[in-house]
Write a structure and sequence with these properties.
Elements lengths: L1 E2 L13 H10 L20 H15 L8 E5 L1 H15 L7 E5 L13 H6 L4 H12 L28 E7 L5 H13 L4 E6 L18 H9 L3
Parallel strand pairs: 1-2, 2-3, 3-4, 4-5
Length: 230
């Protein structure tokens, strides 16, 4: 399952280069979920969560085993992936066998103004991110600081990283999301989740879009390894 980036307000899975780069390496079909984008109150959170859970159960209804499903996303789509995992775990529902998070948007509160160097080199615009975070959380603004910002280690009661499936997290060390992703990774590690972290040196947000190699040591080779079912 793939959830496209776009700060939860734009994007379509067939317009992203990620599935087209990944499929030749893995030979695994990718089910792109065109979740509702937060452009109106009716399509703001929890609409994307509802769409994601429905898509996961659609695959189960089609006969796929949960353990053979990897749920993957980049940027805002990766943020949705984390929310889905936490929701499924909270309600003791089936969980996918693995997850892959590329440059995940894990802090919807940060204004990303602390590091001028990262702002200079990264492709992201902090003002747009702030507007997107507001639009996404307008129905449940209190969750912007907790469930929807897992980097802040303040999950609502009943939600936990403990028991989540194996996870791979990939990001660039020069992107403005990097500090929040490091905080998120630290919390996941403390929870005992099987985790592989790739911090690509001198890379920006979603650098994997422009990486075409399929070698085992490259990002797509590592994603292929994570996607392998037991």
């Amino acid at each position: 399952m793939y959830f496209v980036g776009g700060a939860m307000i734009q994007g379509h899975p067939i317009q992203s280069p990620l599935p087209y780069n990944l499929m030749p390496t893995t030979s695994i079909p990718i089910f792109g979920v065109n979740f509702r984008k937060a452009i109106t109150p009716e399509t703001a959170f929890p609409a994307a969560l509802h769409d994601a859970v429905a898509a996961f159960y659609y695959l189960l209804d089609q006969g796929y085993s949960a353990k053979n499903i990897c749920i993957m996303g980049d940027s805002g789509g990766a943020g949705i992936v984390i929310t889905v995992l936490l929701y499924l775990r909270r309600h003791e529902l089936d969980l996918p066998g693995s997850s892959a998070l590329l440059s995940p948007f894990v802090d919807l509160v940060d204004d990303f103004s602390d590091d001028p160097q990262k702002l200079k080199y990264d492709i992201l615009n902090p003002e747009i991110l702030s507007s997107a975070a507001y639009l996404y959380t307008q129905n449940r603004p209190e969750l912007r600081f907790t469930l929807l910002s897992p980097a802040r280690n303040d999950l609502p009661e009943g939600y936990t990283f403990v028991g989540l499936p194996k996870m791979i997290v990939d990001y660039g060390d020069t992107e403005i999301f990097a500090p929040g992703i490091r905080n998120f990774v630290a919390q996941v590690k403390k929870s005992g989740v099987q985790l592989e972290v790739i911090e690509a040196q001198d890379k920006i947000h979603c650098y994997s879009y422009d990486v075409g190699d399929g070698i085992a040591s490259g990002i797509y080779g590592k994603l292929a390894s994570c996607l392998d079912a037991d």
